[in-house]
Amino acid sequence: MVEVRRALIIANPASRLAIARLPLVREAFARAGVSCDEALTERPGHAAVIATERGADFDAVFTLGGDGTAMEVVGALTGGAIPVGILPGGTGNLIARALGTPPQVGGAVAALLGGVVREIDLGRLDDGRHFAFAAGIGIDATMVAATTARAKRLYGVSAYVRTGVQASLAPQRFTLRATVDGVPHTFEAAAALVANFGAVLRGLLTLGPAISPDDGMLDLCVFSPTDASDAVRLGWRIVRRDFAPDPAMHFLKGRTFHLETDPPRAAQADGELIGTTPLGVTLVPRAARLLAPAHAGR
């Protein structure tokens, strides 16, 4: 169990639930006997600045916001000794879900304070930003782009599920030229992800075989449905964790990735749009120290 006596909470007031949940976070830390300071972000990139300037004065830094806020802090503290606790305060909360963190902040605070520190791999983009869960192009990026702010406010993560299903049933294919550890591959694809965690929606979906966030590798998962019936078939196989050879699924492990598409496609990382292809990713092994519940599966 980690010992946290003083914590810094970095909250993003623009995220879906952060301000509403902040009083509950205060109460949870008070019940645990943990002294905490709070800092509110004011602009994109501000969470990284706060973490860099103040993080070393605390036993742990906690984020309360979406995955973008979390990854700003994780990126700023990469390679250091200060662990980061990611509290669910956004819409997708991909990283918190992947770590097995409870969805309610009171339970999340207790689970992380009573949990363990996990050293996990990160992906580094060509512009220096990091991601923890996955970066991708195709269906997942379409899902991120098509989910409106209003839908996220009203329906939470269900809004992503709806647009993701719509994008999957009408797949837009593209030519993918993927170079993995220097070896070129070409696919006709509808989605391609460089994944670090394998499970989505608390294990309901699994992106590929033997994907682990601390194995010193990243995983390229390529999906190539040709129509709606093909997409349903692949979706059912993913739900059942059936990754037997299939002409519409391809999986490659590696440490460096360069993805080019024809035509160019939008790209996302941990649920944030990051521009268009080409997309370059480099593994940074065991770069992040994240608090996780002790009972969470690895």
Q: What attributes does this structure have?
A:
Tumour Suppressor Smad4; 298 residues; single chain; 35% strand; 9 helices
Tell me the count of domains: 2
Largest beta-sheet details: 6 strands, antiparallel
State Rg. Answer: 19 Å
Query: Which CATH architecture of the largest domain?
Result: Sandwich
Number of strands: 18
The residue-averaged pLDDT reads 90
Strand coverage percent: 35-45%
Level of helix content?
25-40%
- Run of helices and strands: EHEHEHEHHEEEHHHEEEEEEHEEEEE
CATH class of the largest domain: Mainly Beta
Task: Output the number of helix runs.
Answer: 9
Give the overall form: globular
Measured between the Cα atoms of the first and last residue, the distance is: 16 Å
**Strand order, largest beta sheet:** 6-5-18-15-8-9
In the CATH scheme, what's the topology name of the largest domain?
Tumour Suppressor Smad4
Low-confidence stretches: none
Secondary structure category = alpha+beta
